[in-house]
Amino acid sequence: MRIDTGQHLRMDQRMKLAPRMIQSMEILQMAQPALEERIEQELASNPTLEQVEPGSDRDKLLAEMEQAKRDDREGERELVVSDGDGSTGQADDFERLSNMSEQYGEAWASNTSEGGATEFRRAVNTGGERDAKMDAMANTAARGASLYDQLVDQWHLVDIDEPTLKLGEYLIGFVDADGYLRNPLQDLLDQAPAGTTAEQIEECIELLQEALEPTGLCARDFRECLLLQIDNKTYLEPDADLKTERLLVSDYLKDIEANRYPKIAKSTGLEIEAVQKAVHNLRQFHPHPGRLLATDTVRTITPDATIDYDDESDTYSVQLTHSRLPALQISAEYEKIAADKSEDKKTRDFIGTNLRNARWLIDAVRQRHATLLRVIGVVIEAQRDFFDQGPQALKPLPMTLVADQLGIHVATVSRAVSEKYLQTPRGIFPLRMFFSGGTETDQGDAMSWTAVQAKLKEVIDNEDKNKPWSDDALVDELKKHGIEIARRTVAKYRKQLNIPPARQRREY
Prior knowledge:
The protein is of the alpha+beta class. 52% of the residues lie in helices and 6% in strands. It contains 25 helices and 8 strands. The chain has helices at 19-29, 32-45, 59-69, 73-76, 88-104, 106-111, 132-139, 147-155, 162-172, 185-191, 198-211, 222-236, 243-251, 253-257, 261-268, 272-282, 332-339, 345-382, 384-389, 399-406, 410-417, 449-461, 471-480, 487-496, 502-505, and strands at residues 49-51, 305-310, 315-320, 328-330, 421-424, 427-430, 438-440, 446-448. It has a 4-stranded mixed β-sheet with strand order 3-2-5-6, covered by helices on one side. Strands 1-4 form a two-stranded antiparallel ribbon. Strands 7-8 form a two-stranded antiparallel ribbon. Strand 2 and strand 3 (315-320) form a beta hairpin. Helix 23 packs across helix 24 (487-496). It is extended and about 90 Å long.
Protein backbone atom coordinates (compact mmCIF):
# COMPACT_ATOMS: atom_id res chain seq x y z
CA MET A 1 0.00 0.00 0.00
CA ARG A 2 1.33 3.41 -1.01
CA ILE A 3 0.83 6.53 1.12
CA ASP A 4 1.22 9.96 -0.49
CA THR A 5 0.77 13.51 0.75
CA GLY A 6 -0.47 16.31 -1.41
CA GLN A 7 -2.49 19.53 -1.63
CA HIS A 8 -6.03 19.57 -2.95
CA LEU A 9 -8.56 22.34 -3.55
CA ARG A 10 -12.18 21.76 -2.67
CA MET A 11 -15.19 24.07 -2.59
CA ASP A 12 -17.90 23.46 -0.03
CA GLN A 13 -20.45 25.48 1.87
CA ARG A 14 -20.56 25.32 5.64
CA MET A 15 -22.55 27.07 8.31
CA LYS A 16 -20.53 28.07 11.34
CA LEU A 17 -21.72 29.61 14.60
CA ALA A 18 -19.78 32.76 15.46
CA PRO A 19 -19.26 33.68 19.12
CA ARG A 20 -21.68 36.58 18.68
CA MET A 21 -24.43 34.26 17.46
CA ILE A 22 -23.84 32.00 20.43
CA GLN A 23 -24.12 34.99 22.77
CA SER A 24 -27.43 36.01 21.20
CA MET A 25 -28.82 32.51 21.66
CA GLU A 26 -27.60 32.42 25.26
CA ILE A 27 -29.34 35.72 26.03
CA LEU A 28 -32.56 34.41 24.50
CA GLN A 29 -32.38 31.33 26.70
CA MET A 30 -31.54 33.18 29.92
CA ALA A 31 -34.08 33.52 32.70
CA GLN A 32 -34.70 37.09 33.78
CA PRO A 33 -32.52 36.97 36.94
CA ALA A 34 -29.62 35.58 34.89
CA LEU A 35 -30.15 38.29 32.26
CA GLU A 36 -30.11 40.96 34.97
CA GLU A 37 -26.78 39.62 36.20
CA ARG A 38 -25.39 39.51 32.66
CA ILE A 39 -26.36 43.14 32.03
CA GLU A 40 -24.84 44.23 35.33
CA GLN A 41 -21.57 42.52 34.41
CA GLU A 42 -21.55 44.25 31.03
CA LEU A 43 -22.28 47.62 32.63
CA ALA A 44 -19.33 47.11 34.96
CA SER A 45 -16.91 45.97 32.25
CA ASN A 46 -17.93 48.11 29.27
CA PRO A 47 -17.43 51.88 29.72
CA THR A 48 -19.35 52.68 26.53
CA LEU A 49 -22.57 51.08 27.84
CA GLU A 50 -24.70 53.29 30.04
CA GLN A 51 -27.83 52.85 32.08
CA VAL A 52 -30.59 55.34 31.37
CA GLU A 53 -31.05 57.23 34.58
CA PRO A 54 -34.57 57.93 35.94
CA GLY A 55 -35.94 61.25 34.80
CA SER A 56 -33.91 61.39 31.60
CA ASP A 57 -35.39 61.57 28.11
CA ARG A 58 -36.67 58.03 27.48
CA ASP A 59 -39.01 58.77 24.58
CA LYS A 60 -36.50 57.57 22.04
CA LEU A 61 -35.78 54.44 24.00
CA LEU A 62 -39.44 53.59 24.46
CA ALA A 63 -40.03 54.08 20.75
CA GLU A 64 -37.20 51.71 20.00
CA MET A 65 -38.70 49.12 22.35
CA GLU A 66 -42.04 49.38 20.61
CA GLN A 67 -40.27 48.95 17.28
CA ALA A 68 -38.61 45.82 18.65
CA LYS A 69 -42.05 44.36 19.36
CA ARG A 70 -42.95 44.84 15.71
CA ASP A 71 -39.79 43.23 14.34
CA ASP A 72 -40.43 41.35 11.16
CA ARG A 73 -39.79 37.65 10.75
CA GLU A 74 -36.41 38.25 9.19
CA GLY A 75 -35.22 39.84 12.40
CA GLU A 76 -36.51 36.91 14.38
CA ARG A 77 -35.06 34.07 12.32
CA GLU A 78 -31.84 32.54 13.54
CA LEU A 79 -28.76 33.00 11.43
CA VAL A 80 -28.19 29.26 11.02
CA VAL A 81 -31.68 28.24 9.93
CA SER A 82 -32.20 26.81 6.48
CA ASP A 83 -35.55 26.68 4.77
CA GLY A 84 -36.50 23.44 3.11
CA ASP A 85 -33.75 22.51 0.71
CA GLY A 86 -31.30 24.88 2.43
CA SER A 87 -30.77 27.17 -0.55
CA THR A 88 -32.94 30.23 -0.02
CA GLY A 89 -32.61 30.37 3.76
CA GLN A 90 -28.85 29.94 3.65
CA ALA A 91 -28.51 32.66 1.03
CA ASP A 92 -30.45 35.03 3.28
CA ASP A 93 -28.23 34.07 6.20
CA PHE A 94 -25.07 34.83 4.26
CA GLU A 95 -26.54 38.17 3.25
CA ARG A 96 -27.25 38.99 6.88
CA LEU A 97 -23.73 37.95 7.82
CA SER A 98 -22.40 40.27 5.14
CA ASN A 99 -24.49 43.15 6.47
CA MET A 100 -23.20 42.49 9.98
CA SER A 101 -19.65 42.47 8.72
CA GLU A 102 -20.19 45.89 7.15
CA GLN A 103 -21.96 47.25 10.22
CA TYR A 104 -19.50 46.04 12.85
CA GLY A 105 -16.31 46.20 10.83
CA GLU A 106 -13.15 44.32 11.61
CA ALA A 107 -14.35 43.22 15.04
CA TRP A 108 -17.00 41.05 13.36
CA ALA A 109 -14.41 39.25 11.26
CA SER A 110 -12.09 38.75 14.22
CA ASN A 111 -14.88 37.43 16.37
CA THR A 112 -15.95 34.83 13.81
CA SER A 113 -12.57 33.14 13.96
CA GLU A 114 -11.82 30.43 16.49
CA GLY A 115 -11.00 31.77 19.93
CA GLY A 116 -12.17 35.20 18.88
CA ALA A 117 -14.20 35.94 21.99
CA THR A 118 -13.66 39.54 22.99
CA GLU A 119 -12.09 40.22 26.34
CA PHE A 120 -13.48 43.13 28.29
CA ARG A 121 -11.61 45.49 30.53
CA ARG A 122 -13.22 46.21 33.83
CA ALA A 123 -14.03 49.84 34.45
CA VAL A 124 -13.61 50.95 38.05
CA ASN A 125 -15.95 53.58 39.39
CA THR A 126 -13.77 56.01 41.28
CA GLY A 127 -16.34 58.76 41.56
CA GLY A 128 -17.53 60.11 44.87
CA GLU A 129 -21.18 59.16 44.35
CA ARG A 130 -22.73 56.25 46.26
CA ASP A 131 -23.09 53.02 44.35
CA ALA A 132 -26.68 51.75 44.57
CA LYS A 133 -25.58 48.18 43.88
CA MET A 134 -23.03 48.25 46.69
CA ASP A 135 -25.63 49.69 49.04
CA ALA A 136 -28.04 46.89 48.14
CA MET A 137 -25.33 44.28 48.77
CA ALA A 138 -24.49 45.87 52.11
CA ASN A 139 -28.14 45.77 53.18
CA THR A 140 -28.60 42.13 52.14
CA ALA A 141 -28.93 39.72 55.03
CA ALA A 142 -25.86 37.56 55.59
CA ARG A 143 -26.07 33.90 54.75
CA GLY A 144 -27.05 31.84 57.78
CA ALA A 145 -24.59 29.54 59.51
CA SER A 146 -24.46 25.97 58.26
CA LEU A 147 -25.95 23.09 60.21
CA TYR A 148 -22.46 21.82 61.04
CA ASP A 149 -21.34 25.19 62.44
CA GLN A 150 -24.47 25.52 64.57
CA LEU A 151 -24.15 22.02 66.00
CA VAL A 152 -20.45 22.49 66.76
CA ASP A 153 -21.23 25.76 68.55
CA GLN A 154 -23.81 23.95 70.69
CA TRP A 155 -21.41 21.08 71.37
CA HIS A 156 -18.72 23.45 72.63
CA LEU A 157 -21.09 24.61 75.39
CA VAL A 158 -21.18 21.11 76.89
CA ASP A 159 -18.88 20.50 79.87
CA ILE A 160 -16.95 17.44 78.71
CA ASP A 161 -13.35 16.31 78.42
CA GLU A 162 -11.23 17.24 75.40
CA PRO A 163 -11.13 13.77 73.72
CA THR A 164 -14.94 13.50 73.83
CA LEU A 165 -15.23 17.05 72.50
CA LYS A 166 -13.04 16.19 69.51
CA LEU A 167 -14.89 12.92 68.90
CA GLY A 168 -18.21 14.79 68.96
CA GLU A 169 -16.95 17.27 66.37
CA TYR A 170 -15.89 14.34 64.22
CA LEU A 171 -19.33 12.70 64.45
CA ILE A 172 -21.15 15.98 63.76
CA GLY A 173 -19.37 16.03 60.42
CA PHE A 174 -21.43 12.99 59.39
CA VAL A 175 -24.82 14.54 60.27
CA ASP A 176 -26.84 15.05 57.07
CA ALA A 177 -29.17 17.92 56.19
CA ASP A 178 -32.13 16.17 57.87
CA GLY A 179 -30.21 15.95 61.14
CA TYR A 180 -29.63 12.18 60.96
CA LEU A 181 -26.43 10.24 61.61
CA ARG A 182 -27.14 7.48 59.11
CA ASN A 183 -23.62 6.07 58.64
CA PRO A 184 -23.18 2.52 59.96
CA LEU A 185 -21.17 2.21 63.17
CA GLN A 186 -18.38 0.34 61.41
CA ASP A 187 -17.93 3.14 58.86
CA LEU A 188 -17.69 5.69 61.67
CA LEU A 189 -15.18 3.51 63.47
CA ASP A 190 -13.02 2.98 60.37
CA GLN A 191 -12.59 6.71 59.85
CA ALA A 192 -12.42 7.72 63.50
CA PRO A 193 -9.19 8.92 65.18
CA ALA A 194 -6.77 6.17 66.09
CA GLY A 195 -7.58 4.37 69.32
CA THR A 196 -11.33 5.12 69.20
CA THR A 197 -13.56 2.20 70.19
CA ALA A 198 -17.13 1.38 69.17
CA GLU A 199 -18.27 1.87 72.77
CA GLN A 200 -16.85 5.40 72.82
CA ILE A 201 -18.68 6.27 69.59
CA GLU A 202 -21.97 4.89 70.95
CA GLU A 203 -21.58 6.87 74.19
CA CYS A 204 -20.67 10.05 72.31
CA ILE A 205 -23.73 9.70 70.03
CA GLU A 206 -25.94 9.43 73.11
CA LEU A 207 -24.35 12.59 74.52
CA LEU A 208 -24.93 14.39 71.23
CA GLN A 209 -28.58 13.33 71.19
CA GLU A 210 -29.04 14.69 74.74
CA ALA A 211 -27.10 17.92 74.30
CA LEU A 212 -28.08 19.17 70.86
CA GLU A 213 -31.27 21.04 70.08
CA PRO A 214 -33.81 20.53 68.62
CA THR A 215 -34.40 17.09 70.04
CA GLY A 216 -34.06 14.27 67.52
CA LEU A 217 -30.70 15.34 66.10
CA CYS A 218 -28.09 12.62 65.52
CA ALA A 219 -30.75 9.90 65.38
CA ARG A 220 -29.78 6.85 63.34
CA ASP A 221 -33.18 6.50 61.65
CA PHE A 222 -36.71 7.86 61.58
CA ARG A 223 -37.91 5.57 64.39
CA GLU A 224 -35.16 6.70 66.77
CA CYS A 225 -35.79 10.35 65.85
CA LEU A 226 -39.44 10.09 66.88
CA LEU A 227 -38.64 8.12 70.04
CA LEU A 228 -36.15 10.77 71.14
CA GLN A 229 -38.77 13.48 70.73
CA ILE A 230 -41.45 11.44 72.50
CA ASP A 231 -39.16 10.74 75.46
CA ASN A 232 -38.12 14.39 75.67
CA LYS A 233 -41.73 15.57 75.68
CA THR A 234 -42.61 13.03 78.37
CA TYR A 235 -39.69 14.30 80.49
CA LEU A 236 -40.66 17.94 80.07
CA GLU A 237 -44.41 17.29 80.52
CA PRO A 238 -44.89 14.45 83.00
CA ASP A 239 -48.67 14.69 82.58
CA ALA A 240 -48.43 13.95 78.85
CA ASP A 241 -49.58 10.39 78.21
CA LEU A 242 -47.66 9.23 75.14
CA LYS A 243 -47.49 5.49 75.86
CA THR A 244 -49.65 4.62 72.86
CA GLU A 245 -47.61 6.85 70.56
CA ARG A 246 -44.37 5.27 71.78
CA LEU A 247 -45.77 1.78 71.29
CA LEU A 248 -46.83 2.52 67.73
CA VAL A 249 -43.48 4.05 66.80
CA SER A 250 -41.51 1.21 68.41
CA ASP A 251 -43.42 -1.75 66.97
CA TYR A 252 -45.84 -0.64 64.28
CA LEU A 253 -44.15 2.13 62.30
CA LYS A 254 -44.31 0.16 59.02
CA ASP A 255 -48.00 -0.53 59.55
CA ILE A 256 -48.63 3.17 60.15
CA GLU A 257 -46.87 4.05 56.89
CA ALA A 258 -49.01 1.45 55.07
CA ASN A 259 -52.22 2.75 56.71
CA ARG A 260 -52.97 -0.66 58.25
CA TYR A 261 -54.92 0.68 61.21
CA PRO A 262 -57.20 -2.39 61.63
CA LYS A 263 -54.15 -4.64 61.92
CA ILE A 264 -52.63 -2.35 64.56
CA ALA A 265 -55.90 -2.26 66.49
CA LYS A 266 -56.19 -6.04 66.42
CA SER A 267 -52.60 -6.57 67.56
CA THR A 268 -52.67 -3.98 70.35
CA GLY A 269 -56.27 -4.38 71.49
CA LEU A 270 -56.87 -0.68 70.91
CA GLU A 271 -59.83 0.86 69.16
CA ILE A 272 -59.24 2.22 65.67
CA GLU A 273 -60.18 5.68 66.95
CA ALA A 274 -57.40 5.47 69.56
CA VAL A 275 -54.92 4.45 66.89
CA GLN A 276 -55.99 7.35 64.67
CA LYS A 277 -55.69 9.77 67.58
CA ALA A 278 -52.19 8.54 68.43
CA VAL A 279 -51.09 8.86 64.79
CA HIS A 280 -52.52 12.37 64.74
CA ASN A 281 -50.50 13.24 67.87
CA LEU A 282 -47.33 11.97 66.21
CA ARG A 283 -47.65 14.71 63.62
CA GLN A 284 -46.51 17.28 66.20
CA PHE A 285 -42.99 15.84 66.03
CA HIS A 286 -40.66 16.94 63.26
CA PRO A 287 -39.31 14.14 61.03
CA HIS A 288 -36.32 16.25 59.89
CA PRO A 289 -35.02 18.23 62.92
CA GLY A 290 -31.91 19.36 61.05
CA ARG A 291 -34.02 21.43 58.69
CA LEU A 292 -35.28 23.47 61.64
CA LEU A 293 -31.78 24.94 61.96
CA ALA A 294 -30.57 25.20 58.38
CA THR A 295 -33.14 25.27 55.60
CA ASP A 296 -32.47 25.10 51.89
CA THR A 297 -32.63 28.37 50.02
CA VAL A 298 -36.00 28.72 48.35
CA ARG A 299 -35.73 29.81 44.76
CA THR A 300 -37.61 33.00 43.98
CA ILE A 301 -39.55 32.86 40.73
CA THR A 302 -39.62 36.06 38.73
CA PRO A 303 -42.32 35.99 36.02
CA ASP A 304 -40.99 37.02 32.63
CA ALA A 305 -44.42 38.13 31.41
CA THR A 306 -47.87 38.93 32.78
CA ILE A 307 -51.09 37.90 31.07
CA ASP A 308 -54.14 40.03 31.86
CA TYR A 309 -57.79 39.56 30.94
CA ASP A 310 -59.91 42.40 29.59
CA ASP A 311 -63.60 41.96 30.44
CA GLU A 312 -64.82 44.45 27.86
CA SER A 313 -63.07 42.95 24.85
CA ASP A 314 -62.99 39.38 26.23
CA THR A 315 -59.34 39.07 25.27
CA TYR A 316 -56.05 38.27 26.95
CA SER A 317 -53.04 40.55 26.58
CA VAL A 318 -49.39 39.98 27.43
CA GLN A 319 -46.88 42.39 28.84
CA LEU A 320 -43.24 41.62 29.55
CA THR A 321 -42.13 42.25 33.11
CA HIS A 322 -38.73 43.60 32.15
CA SER A 323 -39.06 46.72 34.26
CA ARG A 324 -36.32 45.37 36.54
CA LEU A 325 -33.93 45.27 33.62
CA PRO A 326 -31.93 48.49 33.37
CA ALA A 327 -32.63 50.57 30.28
CA LEU A 328 -29.42 50.68 28.24
CA GLN A 329 -27.97 53.21 25.86
CA ILE A 330 -24.68 53.89 24.10
CA SER A 331 -22.46 56.60 25.54
CA ALA A 332 -22.50 59.60 23.17
CA GLU A 333 -19.20 60.80 24.62
CA TYR A 334 -17.39 57.59 23.73
CA GLU A 335 -18.97 57.58 20.27
CA LYS A 336 -17.39 61.00 19.65
CA ILE A 337 -14.02 59.74 20.84
CA ALA A 338 -14.22 56.71 18.56
CA ALA A 339 -15.00 58.97 15.59
CA ASP A 340 -12.25 61.47 16.41
CA LYS A 341 -9.30 60.71 14.12
CA SER A 342 -6.98 62.80 16.30
CA GLU A 343 -7.24 60.32 19.16
CA ASP A 344 -4.67 57.59 19.68
CA LYS A 345 -5.33 54.54 17.50
CA LYS A 346 -5.18 52.09 20.41
CA THR A 347 -7.68 54.18 22.33
CA ARG A 348 -10.05 54.37 19.36
CA ASP A 349 -9.72 50.62 18.75
CA PHE A 350 -10.47 49.84 22.39
CA ILE A 351 -13.48 52.14 22.45
CA GLY A 352 -14.70 50.88 19.08
CA THR A 353 -14.58 47.28 20.25
CA ASN A 354 -16.58 48.12 23.36
CA LEU A 355 -19.09 50.12 21.34
CA ARG A 356 -19.74 47.12 19.13
CA ASN A 357 -20.07 44.90 22.18
CA ALA A 358 -22.60 47.31 23.68
CA ARG A 359 -24.65 47.45 20.49
CA TRP A 360 -24.64 43.67 20.28
CA LEU A 361 -25.97 43.35 23.82
CA ILE A 362 -28.72 45.93 23.29
CA ASP A 363 -29.78 44.29 20.02
CA ALA A 364 -29.77 40.82 21.58
CA VAL A 365 -31.93 41.97 24.51
CA ARG A 366 -34.42 43.66 22.17
CA GLN A 367 -34.62 40.57 19.98
CA ARG A 368 -35.15 38.44 23.09
CA HIS A 369 -38.11 40.60 24.10
CA ALA A 370 -39.61 40.50 20.62
CA THR A 371 -39.23 36.72 20.27
CA LEU A 372 -40.67 36.10 23.72
CA LEU A 373 -43.70 38.29 22.97
CA ARG A 374 -44.42 36.47 19.72
CA VAL A 375 -44.13 33.02 21.29
CA ILE A 376 -46.37 33.95 24.22
CA GLY A 377 -48.88 35.44 21.78
CA VAL A 378 -49.19 32.07 20.04
CA VAL A 379 -49.55 30.35 23.43
CA ILE A 380 -52.42 32.65 24.40
CA GLU A 381 -54.19 31.96 21.14
CA ALA A 382 -53.67 28.18 21.26
CA GLN A 383 -54.37 27.73 24.97
CA ARG A 384 -57.33 30.07 25.36
CA ASP A 385 -59.37 27.28 26.97
CA PHE A 386 -56.73 26.87 29.66
CA PHE A 387 -56.96 30.51 30.68
CA ASP A 388 -60.78 30.33 30.65
CA GLN A 389 -61.34 26.93 32.28
CA GLY A 390 -58.14 25.80 34.00
CA PRO A 391 -55.48 23.06 33.68
CA GLN A 392 -57.98 20.40 32.57
CA ALA A 393 -58.49 22.32 29.32
CA LEU A 394 -54.79 22.41 28.41
CA LYS A 395 -54.26 21.21 24.83
CA PRO A 396 -51.23 19.59 23.18
CA LEU A 397 -49.00 22.22 21.59
CA PRO A 398 -45.85 20.99 19.79
CA MET A 399 -43.00 23.45 19.50
CA THR A 400 -42.68 22.62 15.83
CA LEU A 401 -46.20 23.97 15.25
CA VAL A 402 -45.32 27.27 16.94
CA ALA A 403 -42.04 27.48 15.00
CA ASP A 404 -43.84 26.97 11.69
CA GLN A 405 -46.46 29.57 12.58
CA LEU A 406 -43.85 32.19 13.48
CA GLY A 407 -41.40 31.28 10.74
CA ILE A 408 -38.53 30.59 13.13
CA HIS A 409 -36.52 27.51 14.00
CA VAL A 410 -37.85 25.11 16.62
CA ALA A 411 -34.60 25.56 18.57
CA THR A 412 -35.44 29.26 18.89
CA VAL A 413 -38.81 28.39 20.43
CA SER A 414 -37.13 25.96 22.81
CA ARG A 415 -34.67 28.60 23.97
CA ALA A 416 -37.38 31.24 24.28
CA VAL A 417 -39.47 29.12 26.67
CA SER A 418 -36.53 27.77 28.70
CA GLU A 419 -36.73 28.82 32.37
CA LYS A 420 -39.40 31.42 31.63
CA TYR A 421 -42.52 31.87 33.76
CA LEU A 422 -45.91 33.44 33.08
CA GLN A 423 -48.05 35.22 35.64
CA THR A 424 -51.65 34.53 34.67
CA PRO A 425 -55.04 35.09 36.31
CA ARG A 426 -54.81 31.41 37.36
CA GLY A 427 -51.37 31.66 38.94
CA ILE A 428 -47.73 31.48 37.90
CA PHE A 429 -46.80 28.69 35.48
CA PRO A 430 -43.64 27.74 33.62
CA LEU A 431 -43.92 28.68 29.97
CA ARG A 432 -42.70 25.23 28.93
CA MET A 433 -45.78 23.68 30.57
CA PHE A 434 -47.90 24.93 27.68
CA PHE A 435 -45.85 22.86 25.23
CA SER A 436 -46.57 19.17 25.65
CA GLY A 437 -47.93 16.13 23.92
CA GLY A 438 -51.29 14.59 24.68
CA THR A 439 -54.09 12.30 23.66
CA GLU A 440 -57.62 12.46 22.28
CA THR A 441 -60.79 11.97 24.27
CA ASP A 442 -63.66 9.79 23.10
CA GLN A 443 -65.23 12.92 21.63
CA GLY A 444 -62.10 13.54 19.52
CA ASP A 445 -60.94 16.57 21.54
CA ALA A 446 -57.21 17.04 22.06
CA MET A 447 -56.10 16.86 25.68
CA SER A 448 -52.57 17.39 26.98
CA TRP A 449 -50.91 15.09 29.47
CA THR A 450 -50.97 17.90 32.02
CA ALA A 451 -54.74 18.08 31.62
CA VAL A 452 -54.96 14.31 32.09
CA GLN A 453 -53.04 14.63 35.36
CA ALA A 454 -55.36 17.39 36.51
CA LYS A 455 -58.38 15.22 35.74
CA LEU A 456 -56.83 12.27 37.60
CA LYS A 457 -56.28 14.44 40.67
CA GLU A 458 -59.89 15.65 40.51
CA VAL A 459 -61.17 12.05 40.33
CA ILE A 460 -59.08 11.03 43.34
CA ASP A 461 -60.13 14.10 45.34
CA ASN A 462 -63.80 13.20 44.81
CA GLU A 463 -63.49 9.47 45.60
CA ASP A 464 -65.00 7.80 48.66
CA LYS A 465 -62.12 7.81 51.13
CA ASN A 466 -63.59 4.80 52.94
CA LYS A 467 -63.27 2.83 49.69
CA PRO A 468 -60.63 4.58 47.55
CA TRP A 469 -60.16 3.48 43.97
CA SER A 470 -57.27 1.26 42.98
CA ASP A 471 -55.23 2.11 39.87
CA ASP A 472 -57.37 -0.28 37.82
CA ALA A 473 -60.52 1.38 39.11
CA LEU A 474 -59.07 4.80 38.27
CA VAL A 475 -58.52 3.60 34.69
CA ASP A 476 -62.23 2.70 34.46
CA GLU A 477 -63.27 5.97 36.08
CA LEU A 478 -61.20 8.02 33.63
CA LYS A 479 -62.84 6.13 30.77
CA LYS A 480 -66.19 7.49 31.97
CA HIS A 481 -64.73 10.96 31.40
CA GLY A 482 -63.61 10.05 27.89
CA ILE A 483 -59.93 9.50 28.80
CA GLU A 484 -58.44 6.13 27.99
CA ILE A 485 -54.95 5.48 29.37
CA ALA A 486 -53.12 2.42 30.65
CA ARG A 487 -52.89 1.40 34.30
CA ARG A 488 -49.13 1.96 34.37
CA THR A 489 -49.72 5.51 33.13
CA VAL A 490 -52.17 6.10 35.96
CA ALA A 491 -49.61 4.79 38.47
CA LYS A 492 -46.89 7.01 36.96
CA TYR A 493 -49.03 10.16 37.05
CA ARG A 494 -50.19 9.37 40.59
CA LYS A 495 -46.57 9.17 41.75
CA GLN A 496 -45.71 12.40 39.94
CA LEU A 497 -48.58 14.08 41.78
CA ASN A 498 -47.33 12.63 45.11
CA ILE A 499 -50.61 10.77 45.61
CA PRO A 500 -50.23 7.55 47.65
CA PRO A 501 -51.79 4.23 46.56
CA ALA A 502 -55.35 3.26 47.51
CA ARG A 503 -54.52 1.45 50.75
CA GLN A 504 -52.73 4.53 52.08
CA ARG A 505 -55.54 6.89 51.04
CA ARG A 506 -58.16 4.90 52.92
CA GLU A 507 -59.76 6.55 55.94
CA TYR A 508 -61.31 4.52 58.76
